[in-house]
Description:
Number of domains: 1
Helix content: 25-40%
Strand content: 15-25%
Largest sheet: 7 strands, mixed
Radius of gyration: 19 Å
CATH architecture: 2-Layer Sandwich
Amino acid sequence: MLRAPKIAAVSVAAVMLFTVAAASVGAWSISRSFDEKVERIPHAFPAPEVRPPSVPAAVGGQQTAQNILLLGSDSRGSIGGSLSDIRGQRSDTMMVVHIAADRSAVSVMSILRDSWVEIPGHGEAKINAALSWGGVPLAVQTVERLLGVRLDHVAVVDLFGFKSVTDALGGVDLHNPIAFDSYHLNGYHFDEGPLHLNGAEALAFARERYAFADGDFERVRNQQLVTRAILGAMIRTETLTDVGKLADLFDALTQYIAVDDGLDAGYIAGLGVQLAGSVGSSARGVGAGAGPGGGVAFFTLPTEGTGSSDNGQTIVNVDWDELLEVRERFQTDTLSTYQAERQTMG
Length: 346
């Protein structure tokens, strides 16, 4: 089993970094470097006939909403250095980034790795098994079936990219709501309150679950805290105006990320221009608050706490009634006003 949850924070940050950079600086050479260096995932999507439709374009517009699946893995060392084919490895991190068709808001939904769902061709199982059994295409198909909406792109990011990007930013700042002793940094204690974390510390903070009564639920919340902190560091003026620092960040990302063929610099730069135009400036758009109605909002796939499967596995039960609303909001591009409840073990 993987031991690298929450690494999809880097994938969210990668998308956001490209969008703000594209609208803030002349980043042509950096974008070209990304296309030349980034690893590609061949055949990333399932067969067209088993896929749901895309979200329609915004009323009166040409743009469609975008859904990007982010998968976290620390499997590179065991598969000969490649992230493009990680069949046999479980994804401890799954997130779906939804970018509104009018580009006014971004919603990021975490999916707990032990969520008990239907995996096409395999029956009910923990959702992170999809990657192990069928690689990226089956992971995509499983999430598409769960949400009833097509995923436009997919990215897999390696554990060490998280540490590398945080260090390239000079560390990140966040407010820790719960003090705890780290399992992953022996002898290290995270105080409650404001923290400045380097790469190793941020990674340990985002991976922790043993210290909490709420286990993976609190770990997902901490993942979202770190993601927000990375985004905040990326949109600082001193980052966006420092081409050398941007180049270092892109280099850090391209070493630890694999994407489908369509997720190239041109696509991401286009998103940057669109997001900037819809909110007045790219930095303000990415940095807006977490509540409904705009900016970047984080929530978790609705659950009804933990339980046991018929074969004795400890699982997370999906709240299927609440998921109906989430599905409808994905399908109608209205996630920006969704009022998510705090997810707990129940």
